[in-house]
Design a protein that fits this description.
Blueprint (H helix, E strand, L loop, with lengths): L8 E7 L16 E2 L2 E2 L1 H12 L4 E4 L4 H7 L5 E4 L6 H7 L5 E6 L7 H16 L7 E8 L6 E5 L5 E5 L12 E11 H11 L8 H11 L4 E5 L12 H21 L3 E2 L5 E3 L4 E2 L4 E2 L3 E4 L3 E2 L4 E2 L4 E3 L2 E2 L4 E2 L3 E3 L2 E2 L4 E2 L4 E2 L4 E2 L4 E2 L4 E3 L2 E2 L4 E2 L4 E3 L1 E3 L4 E2 L4 E3 L9 E3 L4 E2 L4 E3 L2 E3 L4 E2 L4 E2 L7 E5 L2 E6 L7
Parallel strand pairs: 1-4, 1-6, 4-5, 7-11, 12-15, 13-16, 14-17, 15-18, 16-19, 17-20, 18-21, 19-22, 20-23, 21-24, 22-25, 23-26, 24-27, 25-28, 26-29, 27-30, 28-31, 29-32, 30-33, 32-35, 33-36, 34-37, 35-38, 36-39, 37-40, 39-41
Antiparallel strand pairs: 2-3, 6-10, 7-10, 8-9, 8-10, 41-42
Helix pairs in contact: 1-4
Length: about 450
């Protein structure tokens, strides 16, 4: 179904579960799901369905969370401010319809919400009786904590009642009210004013729907194709179930768009991760935050990337990266670690058990195994031997090191910052360098000293 965008539609998301069943001081809607608060899924779906930012209604809300969510919301209210809801919506202009959904339903899709709105609009404009509210329903054989939907002749809804009040019936799937509604705005305002519902139990809108059915008013419905969309997060068990379903959706979408995922069941990719075509993600790989991966890459197995940008034709094997930039044709690992601020230019090789922090490695540079490079600017085509350590911390402050292009840092060299190693310079194996090394100079010893200019026979 297609939403008529010429109508004025407002979206309201209720996030009024305080998280008691989660055994948490954090409201349920703010618990993380695929790398972001689960309410973000409801916000995305509501905005897809209506084209506008939704109004969020919370039971409680810390100021820092309000600031975090503010860019995604048309307005943010507390449950005690429901009397402000009508005025807030009317401030947006003449509202024809109000879509209401729940923050704790992160599997609900924008397409399903669009179907609810479109069905309600059709019911209003067609010759059949005017629908004052359209509800979203789902069918399942399982016991549900939702209100049961009972139908009479011609499939008309004749009751919406709690499960305990309804006889079991036959072995057919039972139909339930998912708690997602599209209201005709004029009727909603009147109903809210006349009913004066108490928001204390968070079911004020459910009660309005029940009253409409009891009064014989026209109530429409739309069924969900996938009952999983009606999953409400109230415990951490529900959260784990939703995570598994969403992860499957993310992985399937990536595979349909040209990414190979060897074993989707053991691959954990957050929402909104970007991966280019013909890249391969191996098992036990975790991609978090704002990570972006280019084309023709091989990531994993056993790799964690967080807020990391990876170029094209890269290999990252058995490694961890957090807040790093990896340009094209870089190979890393196994067992390497990139910390925040690491930047590897095109063609860099980083060996096993190496670590880089807040450092730039120029194109073509090779960093051997068991090395640590921190707070360092490394030029192009540099060779950093095995066991090299940049001693960047003196116990009080971090200091910078500069290594010029084509320098050769011998194995087990210790570079004591602040320090400059010139272009084409070389250190001997095991050197402890405490003073600057001029360009094209060989320095050896403990502490290292410059012994002569390099000769052609000295190698790199």
């Amino acid at each position: 179904m297609t939403v008529n965008k010429t109508s004025n539609i407002a979206a309201v998301i209720l996030a009024i579960d305080p998280g008691k069943r989660m055994n948490s001081a954090t409201p349920t809607a703010l618990h993380p799901l695929l790398g972001r608060p689960l309410i973000q899924n409801a916000i995305k779906a509501a905005q897809e369905a209506t084209g506008i930012k939704p109004i969020l209604v919370f039971n409680q809300l810390a100021e820092e969370v309000r600031q975090e969510l503010d860019p995604y919301a048309g307005n943010i209210l507390l449950e005690s401010q429901l009397d402000v809801l009508k005025a807030t919506l009317q401030d947006q202009g003449e509202i024809d319809y109000v879509l209401v959904t729940r923050a704790e339903m992160p599997l609900m899709t924008g397409q399903t919400l669009s179907n609810v709105v479109a069905a309600h609009q059709t019911a209003v404009t067609d010759e059949k009786p005017l629908a004052l509210v359209t509800i979203l329903t789902f069918a399942t054989h399982e016991t549900s904590g939702f209100d049961r939907v009972i139908r009479g002749e011609n499939e008309k809804i004749i009751a919406v009642s709690r499960e305990a009040m309804v006889s079991p019936g036959k072995n057919e799937p039972r139909e339930y009210d998912a708690g997602v509604y599209c209201f005709t705005a004029d009727w909603l305002w009147q109903a809210l004013e006349s009913a004066s519902p108490s928001p204390a139990n968070g079911r004020f809108l459910n009660e309005l729907v029940k009253r409409a059915v009891q009064d014989g008013l026209p109530v429409g419905s739309v069924s969900i194709d996938d009952p999983n969309e009606a999953l409400v997060i109230s415990t951490r068990i529900d959260l784990a179930e939703a995570e598994a379903i969403l992860r499957q959706r993310v992985n399937q979408d990536l595979m349909l768009n040209g990414v190979t995922i060897i074993d989707p069941k053991t691959t954990y990719i957050d929402a909104n991760i970007e991966i280019g075509k013909d890249s391969v993600i191996w098992p036990n790989t975790y991609l978090h935050g704002s990570t972006q991966i280019g084309e023709n890459c091989a990531i994993g197995p056993n790799t964690i990337l967080r807020d990391t940008r990876v170029g094209n034709h890269c290999i990252v094997l058995f490694s961890v990266s957090d807040g790093a930039i990896i340009e094209d044709k870089v190979d890393i690992g196994p067992f390497a670690r990139l910390r925040k601020g690491a930047h590897l230019a095109e063609g860099v090789h980083m060996g096993n058990f190496g670590e880089i922090k807040n450092a730039y490695l120029g194109s073509g540079t090779k960093m051997g195994h068991f090395s640590y490079v921190g707070d360092t600017d490394v030029g192009t085509q540099v060779n950093i031997g095995a066991g090299v350590v940049v001693a960047n911390y003196d116990g009080k402050r971090k200091h910078q090191t500069e290594i010029g292009a084509r320098a050769f840092i011998g194995s087990d060299t210790i570079l004591v910052a602040p320090l400059k190693v010139g272009e084409d310079a070389q250190t001997g194996a095991g050197a402890v360098v405490t003073k600057d090394v001029p360009p094209n100079t060989l320095a050896v010893g403990m502490p290292a000293r410059a012994i002569r200019k390099k000769e052609k026979d000295d190698g790199p």
